[in-house]
Amino acid sequence: MTTEQTPPVPGPKPLRADARRNRARLLEVAEAVFAEQGTGASTEEVARRANVGIATVFRHFPTKEALLEAVLIRRLEQLAEEGRRLLAESGPTEALFALFDLIVEASPVKNAFAAALADAGVDVGAAAAEAGHALHAVLSELLSGAQRAGAVRKDLEVPELIAILVGTARMLEHLDGHPASAARARAVVRDGLRPPVAG
Amino acid sequence: MTTEQTPPVPGPKPLRADARRNRARLLEVAEAVFAEQGTGASTEEVARRANVGIATVFRHFPTKEALLEAVLIRRLEQLAEEGRRLLAESGPTEALFALFDLIVEASPVKNAFAAALADAGVDVGAAAAEAGHALHAVLSELLSGAQRAGAVRKDLEVPELIAILVGTARMLEHLDGHPASAARARAVVRDGLRPPVAG
């Protein structure tokens, strides 16, 4: 809720409030268009759907890749925000499992964006690093909280939690169109995250 | 242990015993060469390491793709055989978990072969279908046995078991070089396959 921000490193000059709103709206429209038509959708289509001229899109996003990258970063930021909101609302365990599901569901979209950017020679690793760190921090906080509550196995660390997210997304991709099988595969992972039964 | 085989569909004429042995040996050498050097390794290198002329390799495998495909099919067949051997030796539950690990470990190699064949325009789905079916049948038998023994959740079916194999391979690929994390990720899946604790 800070109203003033001093950029820690020299960067583009801050956008005025209306320019910020326009940028946010363009990202929202772009996300919808890419979700419907794939990452091959044109910048022109985004402009048309946002009811602005193509010049307006290019003012905010000089290239199609800049637009794809901004949408990807916005998704990561939204997941981190959602994690924090869930934590405040319902405690770490419920929040962790809910965020787990959200990330797994967002993963095919994220992968499609990452693939499109990699094809264009953009290093997504670097570009999305900051947003990725924020999400990483939220996951780490939820994991510790759920472990303290005794709801998740104590030995689990963030790197394998992320690998399990990636692997679960792959499972569900494999079971696309088979919701009953997908639900059972999710249950396997979800139950496996719980502390093992002594014996 | 059948010594006579009647091919169910018209196929290439049966190889003489020594030709069969040569073919098997070439496949073994080819697998080692591809494992060491990747699927980009040349047929010449396979011939050199097998101590035969290139013409001998081409007599058995007219193209590099035919060789890659035969190695992939042999891996699938070996996994199915190994599953049957494990079942006979140690019962369905141990056999299922052991075969699970073997398939997950074989997966990166299998994927590299499948990718190389897809790049060459070969439809691996069709090519390896028969070997895939045999492995599928063994998995199904081990799964039912382990479920009857009460060691695996009753609701699990083969499609999601295969998806879980694919997803676990992806997890471990993500954790390559981090064996402690990989062991914990494996434990999550393994425990998740067990029947859920009532509560």
TrEMBL record, chains A, B:
Enumerate the spans annotated as HTH tetR-type domain: 20-79
Task: Give the source's domain of life in one word.
Answer: Bacteria
The Swiss-Prot or TrEMBL record marks DNA binding at 42-61
Coiled coil segments of this chain: none
Q: Which UniProt keywords apply?
A: DNA-binding, Transcription, Transcription regulation
Q: What is this protein called?
A: TetR/AcrR family transcriptional regulator
UniProt source species: Streptacidiphilus cavernicola
